[in-house]
Amino acid sequence: MDTYYFTEMPYTAFPESEVDKYPAMRLTFPNSYFDPNIAHDLFKRYLDEFQYAEDIGFDGLMINEHHSTPSCMDVEVNITGGILARVTSKAKILMLGNMLPTSDNPVRLAEEIAMLDVISGGRILSGFVRGIGIETWANNTNPVYNRERFEECHDLIIKTWTTPGPFRWEGKHYQYRAVNPWMLPIQQPHPPVWVPGTGSPETVQWAARNRYTYAAFLTELKVAKELFHNYRSYAAEDGWEPGPDKFAFMICCHVNETDEKAQETGKAFMWRMGYPLKGPREYWAPPGYFSRAGTAANARRRVRPLNELSYQELQDDYHLVVGSPDTVIKKLRHIKDELGVGALLLEAQGGPMSHEDTMRSIKLLGTEVIPAIRD
Amino acid sequence: MAATFTEEFVEVAGSQIHLMKGGSGDPLLILHGAGGNPGWIRYAQELADHYTVYIPSHPGYGQSERPDWLETMNDLACFYTWFMEKQGLDGARAIGFSMGGWLASEIVASCQHSFSKLMLVDPAGIKPEKGEIADIFIISPAQIQEMLFHDKNQVPEYDQLFGQELTPEQTQIAEQNREMAVRICWKPYMHDPRLPFLLGRVNIPTQIVWGHQDQLVPLECGEMFRDAIPGAKLSVIDKCGHLPNIEKPEEFMKIALDFLA
Hints:
Structural class of chain A: alpha/beta
Order of helices and strands of chain A: EHEHEHEHHEEEHEHEHHHHHEHEH
Number of domains of chain A: 1
Shape of chain A: globular
Number of strands of chain B: 8
CATH topology of chain A: TIM Barrel
Distance between the termini of chain A: 6 Å
Largest sheet of chain A: 8 strands, parallel, barrel
Shape of chain B: globular
Radius of gyration of chain B: 17 Å
Radius of gyration of chain A: 20 Å
Structural class of chain B: alpha/beta
Oligomer: heterodimer
Number of helices of chain B: 10
C-alpha cells in the first residue's frame, strides 16, 4: 500500500470569528483579509514540508485546487505540480485534481499535464474532478452542465494524449480545428487517471467503466465500503476484477510522540472541519449540480455533516486519525483491512498546525508508521 | 365568479406541454416567470371573464417536457412561436411576467406578427445600468419569497400561495423549475445584451407595468424597456413589489383590462 502526503495549504492568519459576519468562509468571505506576504512565507513552508515528506519515505505527494477560500491556497494544481515535479525526484505526484467542468480549454489542460509528466519523468497521477458546487460559482460555469462538461472534457483530454494529431473536435461544449499539441506525456498510453468521490453514484460508475482509481474522500468507512462495492459490481458486469490499485481513501492524520501530545496538537484539524465546511446550501449545491440519484443516495445514507461532529466523533468515524505511532499504525491497518485500498491519502497538515508539529508528524509517519503499514 | 378552466397536454416539437385554458373571447397568452406556473389564481380568472386565457407551463417546468435541444432563452422563444402556431395563437394578446416578460420580448423582437398587443410585467431581459437584477440562484427559495413583495400582509392570496408547506412532489417540481431557470438564464444572467437593440423594431401596442419597490428587477429596467420599445407606455404601481398581479390585483387588473381592450 502506498501512502501519500497532502495539505490544502490553508491560510489561517485572521480571526475565525470574522467569518461569522458573512454567509461562509468560501466564495463571499472578503479577500481583504488576505495578506500576500504572509502567503509567501506559507508557500515556502508548505513546499518545504512536501519535500521533507518525500525525503522521509512517503510514496507520493498529493495536491488539490479550490477557489475563493482561505482553506486552500492552491488555486492551480498544475502550478504546484510543476514546482513539485522539479524539486522532488522520486515521489509520485497525485494531482487531485484538475477541475474539468470549469475549464474552457481541455487541450490546454492536456498539454499542461503532459508537460508535468515530462518534467517529472513520468511521475504524474492525473486526477480529474467535477469541482465542489462553490467552484461553479467562483468560475461561473452553469451547474446544469457540470457532468456533461466533465465527461466531454475528459474524453477530449484522453484523445489528445492517445491519438496522433492533428484532429478536429466538434463537441457540444468544446470545439477545436486542430488538436495537435507538441507536448505529450511520458507515461503510456497516458498518466493514470484518478477520480475522487464523496458519494455520487454516477462518479463511481464512471470511474469503474473507465477502470480509473476511485478515491473516497472523508467518507465514513461504511460509505466507502458501499462505494467500493458498487465499483466492483460495475467492474464485474464488464468482466474484470479491480485490484487494490483502483481504490484509495483520504483522511486527516496526525502523529506525535505520545497519544496525549498528539491529541493536543491534532486539534488544529478542527479548523478545517469547521468554517470551511459551512455555508448556504446553494453554495454547495447550486441548482442542477447534483443529480436526483445523487441527492437520493446522500439522503438515504443520512450522513452527519463533518462540521457537526466533535473531535472525538471525527476520530471514532476515522475521518481523523490522531495518536502516537503505535496508535496510528493500528488504526491505519484497520482501514487498510476494512477497505482493501492500494493507497492511503493522508492530509497530514491542517488548519493552523505549526511547522514544528507538522514536521514532527511527517517524520514519525515516515520513519515509524509507513514502514509498518506498507505490506 | 367560480374558477373555470381546463387542463390538457398539447404536443409541440415532440414534447408534451401542460396547458391551462379557460374563459371566452379573444385569446390571451400568459407567459409565467422563472419560479414556475402559479396556476389558475385570481388574476387569471378575472382575465378569463374577458378573454380565453392560455397558461402553458414552459418546457422543463412543472409537468411540461423539455426537448433535449432546448437550452437557451432563444430556443425557448423559437419553441413558443411553434406552440402559438399549433394553438392558433398567432396575433393573440400576450402578457409576460418577469422571466416570461423577457421571453415575450424575445418572441416579439424576432417574430414581428406574433402578438397584437403585449403587456410586460416586471420583465427580466435587460441589464440595468445602475442597479442589478437580484441573483435568485445563489439564495434560497425562502429568501426569494421574502423579496417578492413590498408588503406580504397586503397580498390577498398570500396564504393560499405560500401558507402550506410543500409536499415532496411539489418540492421536486420547484427544484426542477429552478434547474430549468438555471439552464436558460445562467450566463449572461437573466438578460440578453442584444435585446434593447432588437426591441427597436417592435411596432405593436406595448404596456409595461412595474412594482415601484421591486427588489428582484429594479424599476430602472422598466424605464429601459420603455425607451427601447417605440411607443411603449410604463405604468408604475406604488407600494408594490415584483408581482403586481398578486400584490396589487385591483390596480393591475385595471391597467390590464384598459390596455388589452
